[in-house]
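Sequence, structure tokens quoted for completeness.
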Amino acid sequence: MENHAELFEALQTYFDGLFFCDKDKLDVVFHPAASLFDAEKGVIFAEPVASFNADVGGNAANSPHALGQEPDAEILMVDYLSPVSAVAKIRFRARKNVYQDHLSLLKGENGWQIVAKVWCLEKVVDRI
């Protein structure tokens, strides 16, 4: 299914944006109005995507790639709500942190884009 390949391409762009701390890739895959959420500290934390992309995208010198880490990311599940809406559950490692994300994606005029991200720190590993 073409839709499937396009969605997986968007998820790979997301993984590459995180791995290389590449703001341009993150800007492409996130819708400009997207927000990110977690509740790790017992309260809901919301961050606009522009802030996230600037923080992560401005950290290329400390990116997993620059530190010699091998790519470590996987798609755990994709659930299509319609031909233009889906939810993806993914796992990736950035330095010593292993995260899980639930990504809500919509396909619009710019292809598949993440419109919301709920994430959690799954675990911390001993190695970079």
User: Anything to note?
Assistant: The radius of gyration is 14 Å. DSSP finds three helices and six strands in the chain.
